[in-house]
Write a structure and sequence with these properties.
- The chain is of the alpha+beta class.
- It contains 4 helices and 5 strands; from the N terminus they run E-H-H-H-H-E-E-E-E.
- The protein is 23% helix and 38% strand.
- A hairpin with a 5-residue loop joins strand 4 and strand 5.
- The protein has a single domain, classed as Hotdog Thioesterase (Thiol Ester Dehydrase, Chain A, Roll).
- The longest helix has 15 residues.
C-alpha cells in the first residue's frame, strides 16, 4: 500500500477493534539474515554458516531484532500507513517464540484490543501482534501501544 497524505489517513475512531488484521508476508533469505546480522547482531549463529551448522540450531537463523524489524515493516506497509499514527508508545511482552531460518515465509497479524482517548485530538490504541512461520507457528509475539490522532 502506498503511503497516504496525513489528511487522508484514518483517525482512531476508524480502527477496527477486535478484528484480526492480516499484514501480508515476507520470505527471509540467507543473504538478508547475514547482512542484517553483520551490521546489527553479529553473533556466530547469524553470520557464520559453518559455526551455525554446528550450533544447536543446525544452521543460520535470523536475529530476533531482525525478526522484529520484519514485523514492523509489515505493520507499516499493511496497517500503519492507513491510519494517522503519531508515534509508537510501548512494546511489551516481546517474545521470540522459535528460530527463523532462511527460506521461511513469515506472515504477520495484528488485533486492535482497545482505543483510549488521551486528550483533544489524540488517543492510544493497544494491539497484539504475531509473526507466524510456514507451519502457522508463532515465531514472534508482542503487545504494541501507539499514539494516534482522533476526531474528538
Amino acid at each position: 500500500m502506498n503511503d497516504l497524505t496525513a489528511n487522508k489517513r484514518l483517525p482512531a475512531e476508524e480502527l477496527p477493534i477486535g478484528e484480526l488484521l492480516h499484514l501480508g508476508s515476507h520470505t527471509v533469505t540467507e543473504e538478508e539474515i547475514i547482512g542484517f546480522a553483520q551490521q546489527w547482531d553479529p553473533q556466530y549463529f547469524h553470520v557464520d554458516l559453518e559455526a551455525a551448522a554446528n550450533s544447536e540450531f543446525g544452521g543460520i537463523i535470523a536475529s530476533g531484532i531482525h525478526t522484529a524489524a520484519i514485523f514492523q515493516r509489515l505493520c507499516v506497509e499493511n496497517f500503519f500507513n492507513r491510519y494517522d499514527i503519531i508515534a509508537g508508545r510501548e512494546v511489551s511482552q516481546l517474545r521470540f517464540e522459535r528460530p527463523v531460518f532462511a527460506g521461511t515465509e513469515l506472515r504477520g497479524r495484528v488485533t486492535i484490543k482497545s482505543v483510549t482517548p488521551t486528550g483533544p485530538g489524540r488517543a492510544i490504541f493497544s494491539s497484539t501482534g504475531v509473526l507466524v512461520d510456514n507451519a502457522d507457528r508463532p515465531v514472534l509475539s508482542l503487545v504494541l501501544d501507539a499514539l494516534i490522532r482522533s476526531r474528538e
